[in-house]
Amino acid sequence: MFTIDRLSKTYPTRHGESVRALDDVSLRVGDGEFLSIVGPSGCGKSTLLKILAGLAPATAGSVRYRGETVSKPRHDVGVVFQEATLLPWLSVVRNILVPADVARISRAKLEPRALDLLELVGLAGFHDKYPQELSGGMQQRVAICRALLRQPAVLLMDEPFGALDALTREQMNIELQRIWSMQRNTIVFITHSIPEAVLLSDRVVVMSRRPGRILDVLSIDLPRPRTLDMVNTQKFGAYAQQARRLLDRTEASTSTVQFL
């Protein structure tokens, strides 16, 4: 789905300097794959996602989607951010239909799809509620419905459960896995949580501190559907420990440089 080749991204500062967020990133994302990206804060994970979404340009290198250079947002690539960002004056179903309004597609044409999605995420009957009447987890489910409205082949998710409490986050992990197993979209998932990445993913990309580089890509060989009980198994722990060692290594290197 995506071919990333020697991608770099540099941001100018107001003082005329430059900050390199990403450096020489190369990666391929397969059709129907669930790929997670973990790394320290500020390592360029979100920047990479924005470039994949066509929301930010690359400074060097290239990103191709199904062979075409990514230069702008696409209707077949959905994005879910950390905050649900629902419009408080619109009902749940109207919030889901916002992409139809933007694309000037008849609401009547896509409303059955919106209602089906609400049933898919366990919110059937909540179509006429308003965001303030929903819990944080329910709001994020609505945001996922909105991203899925136009049946995207790819779902890009930037720490979508980071603001949720631990219990709700676990529930959303299981819910997302169920949705993915039914829809079979390609998912690129940004997270700070190693256990979350291992639980959900086919592969986990581990990134270094800024400028973000790929330290390793771990293939996760665990049976599906995955359950929360797997977190306590030896094999799960081995994957999580492998990712943690990679991150600890980059932390140690950074600390040594700062000390010297």
Mind explaining what this structure looks like?
It is a single chain. The chain has 260 residues and is of the alpha/beta class. The protein has a single domain (2-245), classed as Rossmann fold. It is 37% helix and 23% strand. The protein has helices spanning 45-52, 92-96, 98-102, 107-120, 136-148, 166-183, 194-200, 234-259, and strands spanning 2-12, 18-29, 34-38, 60-65, 68-69, 77-80, 154-158, 186-190, 203-207, 214-219. The strands form 2 sheets. Strands 6-7-8-3-9-10 form a 6-stranded mixed sheet, with helices on both faces. Strand 1 (2-12) and strand 2 form a beta hairpin. Helix 7 crosses helix 8. The protein is globular. The N and C termini lie far apart (43 Å).
Output the keywords.
single chain; 260 residues; alpha/beta; Rossmann fold; 6-stranded mixed β-sheet; 23% strand; disordered C terminus
How would you briefly describe this protein structure?
This protein is of the alpha/beta class and 260 residues long.
How would you summarize the topology of this molecule?
Layout: E1 2-12, E2 18-29, E3 34-38, H1 45-52, E4 60-65, E5 68-69, E6 77-80, H2 92-96, H3 98-102, H4 107-120, H5 136-148, E7 154-158, H6 166-183, E8 186-190, H7 194-200, E9 203-207, E10 214-219, H8 234-259
Parallel strand pairs: 3-8, 3-9, 6-7, 7-8
Antiparallel strand pairs: 1-2, 1-4, 4-5, 9-10
Helix pairs in contact: 7-8
